[in-house]
Amino acid sequence: MHPIQAQFETLKTLTEPTSEALIWFEAFVSALEEGTIRAAEPDPESLTGWRVNAWVKQAILLGFRWGVLQEVEWGGARFLDKHLYPPRPFRPEEGVRIVPGGTAIRRGACLKPGVVVMPPSYVNVGAYVGEGTMVDSHVLVGSCAQIGARVHLSAGCQIGGVLEPVGALPVIVEDEAMIGGCTGIFEGTIVKRRAVIGAGVVLTRSMPLYDLVHERVIRAEGDLPLIVPEGAVVVAGARPAQSEFGRQHQLHLYAPVIVKYRDARTDAQTALEDALR
């Protein structure tokens, strides 16, 4: 058990923080920002390859319980928020580039060296963004979402967050994935390494994923989330509605489709530009 977790077990029932509790909370949030504590982390023994650290999400929620609503000034504007989760400042030596123009990174979010954040974007508490990742304009990285290294989150994409229920798996995007513009990845979906999610694709737990290459349907089963296979290239497709009314009116339903798996041509089209970093 992590030392910070051990202290959490003794403090989690407090409705109001003591001075000792506030010292602990500062250490907890700092560990989140350093990435030494994560809401979910790789686990090769798990069926998904990931393990949820439910206590981390419980501790984040504790900060909301202890927090007091107060006025926050940031970038010349005034906001109202819980005082324990203000916007996070960065220092040049951290190696994170945040371009001016309306971006906010909340305290408790981890951004590793080489990350670039284009405006306006938002990264919420508990999120983890790996080395060299590009967070493009109008991107949301939700609470506790886990983004790998050298990922491209294209303009307008939404990576869903999760704090409740505490045992739920957050959205995970593994290393070197390419997430296209105006996409939505929600409800604990896992995008495996080097996968490519085409523009406009939406992925949720309730949505089947059709694999044309291997002629199979990938679904979330039981406690397992929807998992996009490694190297899969997913585009927005459609399938005919099966009801009599649907056939009568020639209706089609949205369906994400794997059209191929990454090859040299895909690698060339999705290569990251080191000069930007």
Could you name the key traits of this structure?
277 residues, alpha/beta, UDP N-Acetylglucosamine Acyltransferase, domain 1, six-stranded parallel beta sheet, 26 strands
Alpha-carbon distance between the termini? 36 Å
The first-level CATH class name: Mainly Beta
Count of the domains:
1
Computed over alpha carbons, the radius of gyration is 20 Å
CATH topology: the name is UDP N-Acetylglucosamine Acyltransferase, domain 1
Summed up, the helix count is 5
Helix content: 10-25%
Structural class: alpha/beta
Shape category: globular
- The low-pLDDT segments are none
Strand content: 25-35%
Describe the structure.
- The protein is α/β, with parallel strands linked by helices and 277 residues long.
- It has a single domain (3-266), classed as UDP N-Acetylglucosamine Acyltransferase, domain 1 (3 Solenoid).
- The chain has five helices and 26 strands.
- It has helices spanning 3-11, 19-34, 54-66, 244-248, 264-270, and strands at residues 40-42, 50-52, 69-74, 77-82, 97-98, 104-105, 110-111, 116-117, 122-123, 128-129, 134-135, 140-141, 146-147, 152-153, 158-159, 172-173, 178-179, 184-185, 190-191, 196-197, 202-203, 209-211, 216-218, 227-228, 232-240, 252-261.
- It has a ten-stranded mixed beta sheet, with no helix packed on it. A six-stranded parallel beta sheet has the order 6-9-12-15-18-21, with no helix packed on it. A six-stranded parallel beta sheet has the order 7-10-13-16-19-24.
- A hairpin with a 2-residue loop joins strand 3 (69-74) and strand 4.
- The longest helix has 16 residues, at 19-34.
- The radius of gyration is 20 Å and the shape is globular.
- The two termini are 36 Å apart.
- The mean pLDDT is 93.
